[in-house]
Amino acid sequence: MSAKLPPKLLKLVTDAVCDFFAAAGVSNTKPVADASKRWAAMPQPTYSSSLGFTGMQMRGAMLLFCGTPVLSATSPQRAFSPTLSDADHADWVGEMANQIVGNLKRLVAGYQVEFQLSTPTVVRGTELQIAGKKGDDLAVLWFEVDGQPMTLHFFAELGEGVSFEGEPAKVDQASGGDAMLF
Question: What is the mean pLDDT of residues 110-115?
Answer without folding.
Answer: 93
